[in-house]
Amino acid sequence: MNLPVCLLALAAAFRLVDGDRRSARRIRFDTPGAILVTGGMLLTVHALVEAPDRGWGTARTIGELTTAALLLAAFVVNERRSRNPLAPLSIFRIKGLAAADATQLIAFAGFYSMFFFLTLYMQNVLGYSPVKAGAAYLPVTAGIALAAGVSARLFTRFGTRPVIVTGALAAAVGVYYLSRIPTDGSYPVDLLPGLLVMSVGLGAVFVGVTTAANAGVPPDKAGLAAGLLNTSTQLGAALGLAVFSAIATARTNHLLVGGSGEPAALTAGYQRALLACAVFLLAAAVIALRATHTRATPPGMTPPEPAQEPGDEHTARQAAG
Questions:
Q1: Alpha-carbon distance 288 to 240, whole Å?
Q2: Distance CA 221, CA 238 (A)
Q3: Which residues, including other chains, have CB under 8 Å from residue 279's CB and lie 6 or more apart?
């Protein structure tokens, strides 16, 4: 299903995005940096995803994580010495940028994992079909869209930081509600309320962090800032799934060994994982207190008209007369 969307986006890019044909001086590409960071990230994600099945204490998991750390450390050294670094470390001198990326990483560890475990709960415990489980998230789409639009308007009045923190707290409340799912749960009572509250928080966090992570970034570093934010999202998803899957599996296996039925054991594991997701979202709210605080309007949004004082209209008429 993604392929038609990608084709539409590609066609739209050629029609809507201005081409930059200015000639630029050719500079040496940072090939060593690209190889080091790509290898380090891939190995990190692979180790995190496979660790719950292999075991966190196995030699292979420890070896992969250690090698990944060495590759990323070598990448940092390379960036410091390179004349044309792939990711100039000076970008992190922009106030609040690192905190915004960290907020994205921790928050989306909770968000992505929440969708994963709720889907398993709906299919493995409640008996939903894949189509029915997917349809259950339709209200979430509406909530995210509504919250994103409202949040973008709130930036000019309150700034990004309060919006991100409030969104993360709201999402934590929604996910905590979802962590109380019962074995015989129903969609209107046990899922929908939590999903709606979570979706509002997700919309606020996504738009807020995206705006904060790009605030104050020079135009020639905008692509780098966007890449860092996207990397934070992907690492957060991998980290969350790895850690929370281990938590859920441990709880479920413990109950199965004790004689509990499979539905009850699975539900208990999902509950424990969702509770961990809520804790991560609370942590994201705390980290967001250090994120960039800007009143800038996100790209593509029209800033609201400034409010008029009571005497402004009369003054304007006098000037016109």
A1: 18
A2: 26
A3: 110, 172
Confidence (pTM): 0.81
Ramachandran region of residue 159, left (φ > 0), alpha (ψ -120 to 50) or beta?
left
**What pLDDT, in 10s, does the model give residues 68-79?**
999 999 999 999
| E strand or H helix that includes residue 318 | helix 312-320
Which tens digit of pLDDT belongs to each residue from 10-41? 999 988 887 666 655 556 788 999 999 999 98
Query: 274 near 175, Cβ under 8 Å?
Result: yes
Phi, psi angles (nearest 5°) of residue 64: -65, -45
HSE-up of 87 (CA within 13 Å, CB side)? 20
Q: With contact defined as beta carbons under 8 Å apart, do 201 and 169 qualify?
A: yes
User: Distance (Å, rounded) from C-alpha 278 to C-alpha 143?
Assistant: 18
Check: CB of residue 47 under 8 Å from CB of residue 64.
Answer: yes
Backbone angles phi, psi at 106, to 5 degrees: -70, -40
pLDDT at 220: 82
Radius of gyration of the CA atoms of the chain, in A: 23
Instruction: Let me know: does 194 contact 170? Beta carbons within 8 Å.
Output: no
**Terminal-residue alpha carbon distance, the chain:** 61
CA 112 – CA 101 distance, rounded (Å): 16
What backbone torsions phi and psi does residue 29 show, to the nearest 5 degrees? -75, 140
